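REQUEST ID: PR-0412
SUBMITTED BY: lab tech R.K.
PRIORITY: routine
TASK: structure prediction, single protein chain
INPUT:
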Amino acid sequence: MSTAANPANPAGMDATSDVPTLPPVASGRSRLTDFPDRLGPMVVKELRQGLRSRAFVAIFILMQGFICITLLGSLSTPGTDAGGGPYWAVVWIVLLVALPMRGMQAVTQERSATMLELITLTKLTSYRIVAGKWAALSAQSLLVVICLLPCTMLRYFAFGISVAEECIALLLIAAIGMVGNAVGVAVSCFPERWSRGLLMLGLLFIGLWSVGGVWSMFMFDSFDMFGPSLIAAVATWEFWICMLLPPLAVVFFLLFGAGLIAGPAENHSTPRRLLVTGVLLVMLGLRVLLDLDPDAFIAFALLIFIAAVADACTDAPRLLPRVTRPFVRAGPFGRIGAWLLAPGWHTAPFWLLLVVCPLVALLVPIVGGSSEALGMGLMLAIGAGTVFWGTVFDRLMYRHQPPSLPRMILIQVIAWILAAFAVAYEAATLTDDVSVSILLPHAMFINLFRLSEGAALATGGLPFDTDLLMIGLLQTLVAVVILMAMARPLFTGWRRSAAKARQDLADRAAAKAAAATTTPAAPAGTPS
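STATUS: complete
OUTPUT:
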């Protein structure tokens, strides 16, 4: 007799047993209502929260509404794609501004709720945490791109646009947006609220500036954003090299964000430096072997160099034996590698000297010769020296605090503003005398370009004043000497940590050898 409909037995209990009746097991098809666990716990968590959040729903609905309005406005004038500019502006705002801005709150929510420490106590590493948040945010970007495909088909039937070029353009914007998502997640790892706000304003300015430029290109028909030969460009080496750079940039920024929330025993600085060095060497090898246009490389190389300088000069030292152990295992090569790849701002000058060499080789066919390329390489070294001086001031004022990239940016902004006023004062009153800028390395860097501009236009090269170059190099050398003097305790701590790691490795090897040579005793009663 069933008790399911008995009011006296509402729990569905059997009359002869205290065990409740279980509901029937759902079929395999009906169970597919959520994300599979093989995606990773952090990805599943962020996807569940992100897709249900009010921010994503509002962005998605507003995007669809604006696109519908632009398409309806374009359909009122058949034969012309009058809404192309507003359409692409909306796409850029969503993929390059709105979603990366949401990424800037990725780690902040766990930090404010004091949940970040609990997450780091699990088996999830800091890199898996930030990578999971980036993957969830990039999945939302791909969802937006997929939802734009019907609009592409509508624009094809209404205006005769090229579907292939539209899809490639969407993929390019999505790739750039994924880099922006990685930047947003990395920014969210900064603990200071003012630093996140400063970097958020900078990213918002860059995003709105790019959107404004695209809007003006389409509205005034002065420049075709994607060009009539986009499909032909896909078959070139430059296109695929440019497509390989966004994934590498994503890995770099994710490693940077992981380093901000990682414990003192995790080393994410060495992989970042190896990544930057490898990218520059590969770019140099491809340009030499394939004889590609160097202009396609130098812009990316300079951006990589700027990111490398800012990262290395604000890197926090990590001196635990777990960090030094891989260098100790490498033997003599590890000792040399520690001067270049060990985490910390104290090794930044040595590593950046290595990074400048591929850049100088890339500059040779651009500036017209090896001497001009050497001059540009010295200019890059002097530019890095301006950042070294910022590190000196930061360590003098905040010696008991770890380095901070937002604080370094603030110091550099103030220094460049003072240098601009000093150069303007020299040009207006002292008739190109550089006596004031000798005391300001940033002003010396500006004067190297300002006083050489006329000669560059006359000769077609990039000649620099030898005296100014020597003064700038001397300023950089002084900054490096001061940094090495301030970093002396760090080098001492690294040697002590390396000695302890070397002793631990020796003890483990001795214990392993002793265990291998020891024969277990035969059990009683076993015949010999």
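NOTES: The mean pLDDT is 77.
REVIEWED BY: pending
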